[in-house]
Amino acid sequence: MVSAKFSCLLQALEMRRISALRDIEVAKTQALAQVRDEEQRIQGHLEAAAHSDRRIRDLLEHSDDQTFFQESQLLVPPGPLEPLTPPQWDEDQQLGGLKESLSQLCGLLLDKEGPPEAPTETADLGPMEAPDPRAPVLSLICPLRRKLWQNYRNLTFDPDSANRHLYLSRQDQQVKHCLKPRGLAGPGSFELWQVQCAQSFQSGRHYWEVRTSSHSVTLGVAYPELTRRKQGAHTDNIGRGPHSWGLCIQEEGAQAWHNGEARRLPAVSGKLLGVDLDLVSGCLTFYSLEPEAQLLHTFHAIFTRPLYPIFWLLEGRTLTLCHRPEAKPHPGLQEEASGLS
Question: Which GO terms describe its biological process (predicted)?
Answer without folding.
Answer: positive regulation of autophagy
